[in-house]
Amino acid sequence: MAGLELLSDQGFRIDGRRPHELRKIECRLGVFRQADGSAYIEQGNTKVLAAVYGPHEVRGRRGKALHDKVVINCQYSMATFSTGERKRRPRGDRKSQEMTMHLQQTFNAAILTTLYPRSQIDIFVEDLFETTSIVDFNHFEESFGGAEVIVATLPRSDQIIFLEMNGRLHEDHLTAVMDRAIAGCKDVYHIVDRVVREHVSERSAAIGSEINNG
Amino acid sequence: MADIILSEAEKIFIVHGIQDNFREDGRSCDDYRQMELETGLISNTSGSARLRLANTEILVGIKVELEEPKPEKPDTGRLEFFVDCSANATPEFEGRGGEDLATEIMNFLSHSYSSETVLDLKSLCLVPSKLCWVFYVDVLLLECGGNLFDAASIAVKAALFNTKIPNVSISQESEDTELNVSDDPYDVKRIDVSRTPCIITLSKIGHCHVVDASQKEEACCLARLMMAVTAEGNVTAMVKEGSGSLDPSSVSDMMQSGKKIGQELNYKLLEKLKEEEQKGLKRQTVGFLR
Fold it and tell me: Could you mention a single GO BP entry for this protein (chain B) (predicted)?
């Protein structure tokens, strides 16, 4: 085939990674002081900020409230300068609406929604630099085409809570691809889990010293 | 705007403090809060800056593009401002909720940069009435901690300072003009930001006025004067905002202190930007990882 191949003969990708390798992930919690929860995550060049508000009273239309579980409200937007070509609008286009729906679906499954009836949790995600999915293509690989499988799992119980496939993939490959994707989810989980633990121990140490001093 | 609700007693506490030139966080009336500024942190933009002023967080990305000049100004380039209030700042901004505030900031920024003396826009024109550089200045508001206009203008100025425009060579062959945009990241030119303005917001609280009002102070303020001041002390735009009224003598008082503080702020900002630039490639970008 003329042009570029996704994998070289030696089995390396264009940026030198092996097929199953994730890009470097860095993460920080508590980026914003006003949000109830916030995080920043960087994976290679992909940079994302997220803020969570709630659970709080249902805002706006009261009819939205559910009597037996919490309303999960998500919004995904991309900074206008985040893509190679400047975007005109930060949200409202098809891609951001699709991402919003993905987030909504994922978190409806991941959160124990029955714990907070008649309330609402807001999840806002701001993409600062060219997003890629969790299986972690780089932008070139993503735009190159080929089948794409997006999976989100609950790592402790190995349950799949979100699954989407675009493009065409032979049935025989599906299991292998899924296994790889689930392994990728676990890798990400271990990294994020470590950051969360570090953050919590740091915070609790700070609170502890405040109590001792004051 | 993302307002907070204060009780009458809390307001009185803040107003009395300001009367004694001692604000609730220990500042005097013409002190700014601590700023954290970093430039060049978004690699797919021509220029970018992140500013954190206490709890106010602003990210600016500038993309330069080659386009046709406006017919009424065929020999100049132009700046296009866009402001987006992220829902990360407050849930009220979700959907179209932040649009009013965004338009307000956007309009005042474009007013303050509309003066011809501010930037040498003529140098951004390559072929009159055919081709010029357009700066798309995108401001992203990530957290509201008061004084958004000042913070946005400082971040814009820093991002403009950081903006690198690729050098273009033009060869004219009979009818066609052929462009050659350099793709060498070091073969670039910069723009002179020494005459660009910073916005200073003076909030009238009680009988005094303060700069860089925090969110709580903004809740006590009925009228404010926003002015775009350059390093030379020229005012390129001014607007009175809020439901209260101001008498002419206090307007002139506010303008005096706005001019003084504006000049100082411009001077300090440029000094720090140059200092950061001198670190060159050795500097590590921190971004949101701190």
Answer: TRAMP-dependent tRNA surveillance pathway
